[in-house]
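Now for one protein, fold included:
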Amino acid sequence: MSKNKLINIAKNIKDEDINFDDIPELTNEDIKKSIPLYEAPEILELLDSQKKETKEKITIRLKSSTLETFRGLGKGYQTKISDILDNIAKNIKKHS
């Protein structure tokens, strides 16, 4: 993906589409280690796949202990559950 395409994608991201709950504050060391997004193709691939697919609201039944564990992670726990299920789904597709 080109640098210009990345810039256009970034310009179109609305603040309300960003979940800041599970984003840690950057340290000076983090900033020193950072690289431009266009130099990280695996992240770009992930961003592209997330942008193409919308989320669907569903009802799911989970064990109380499972839900308690995820709720214990704080805000953003539903996104973490979704991410874990996405990874499992990718592995299933990969091995079938």
Remarks:
- The chain has a mean pLDDT of 86.
- Residues 25 and 31 are 11 Å apart (CA to CA).
